[in-house]
Amino acid sequence: MRRAVRATYDEDRVLVWQAHRAEIADEALQKGRFGGASWSLRRHTVIRLSLPSLLHRVDFGRREGRERVLGLWLRRDVFDALLQQAVHRVYEAAVYDSIRTWRLATRWAQVSVEWHDDLGLDGHPDGTETLRIGLRQEALRRFNEEGILSVFDLSSKLEDAEALAAYRLAPYPLPEATARRLAGEA
């Protein structure tokens, strides 16, 4: 299995995915970011780079509480800064001196990453792994208040394979040391 950070992006933005219940999605679409009574900065949230991976996780919007699939365009500089501070949710011997060091890092981490098999729209692994990125505390605030450029709802197109295929992943350019660390090779 090959680990490589892949994303849908352009010069200024990177696209991440989340699924939420209707009231959270409606508030995010209205405000262009998360907020309101249904969403809190005291939570832990997960963003995904791979749309098919998210869609299979939420059963194409049929999982209760995850009916609405949102695309979030983030500022690349904010996204890059989040990845710079990320620690692994699973111990990576090549990155951490010891399990104790890793446990201390995860205890205080505001950004965590975990690798999962990436999937095609058909639900079969595509031979690569994709990042699942967890955010909390100040990182979550920065993601929400500084990072989000726009929010769109893909929920009505979840059965349209052609529309979904438009969100292709490409290798995401990161400094080599960051890419190697994230891949567990540092």
Q: If you had to describe this structure to a student in words, what would you say it looks like?
A:
This protein has 186 residues and is an alpha+beta fold. It has one domain (2-182). The chain has seven helices and ten strands. The protein has helices at residues 22-31, 51-57, 76-84, 99-108, 137-147, 161-165, 176-182; strands spanning 2-3, 6-9, 13-20, 45-48, 68-75, 87-88, 111-119, 125-135, 148-153, 170-171. The strands form two sheets. Strands 1, 4, 6, 7 and 8 form a five-stranded mixed sheet that branches. A five-stranded antiparallel sheet has the order 9-5-3-2-10. A hairpin with a 5-residue loop joins strand 7 and strand 8.
What order do the helices and strands come in, and which of them pair?
Blueprint (H helix, E strand, L loop, with lengths): L1 E2 L2 E4 L3 E8 L1 H10 L13 E4 L2 H7 L10 E8 H9 L2 E2 L10 H10 L2 E9 L5 E11 L1 H11 E6 L7 H5 L4 E2 L4 H7 L4
Parallel strand pairs: 1-8, 6-7
Antiparallel strand pairs: 2-3, 2-10, 3-5, 4-8, 5-9, 7-8
Structural domains: how many: 1
Query: Low-confidence segments, ≥5 residues, pLDDT <50?
Result: none
User: Total number of β-strand segments?
Assistant: 10
Major beta-sheet overview: 5 strands, mixed
What is the helix content? Answer: 25-40%
Query: Which structural class is indicated by helix and strand composition?
Result: alpha+beta
- N/C terminus separation: 17 Å
Rg computed from alpha carbons, rounded to a whole number of angstroms: 16 Å
Overall 3D shape: globular
User: What's the pLDDT, averaged over the residues?
Assistant: 94
Share in β-strands: 25-35%
- Count the helices. How many? 7
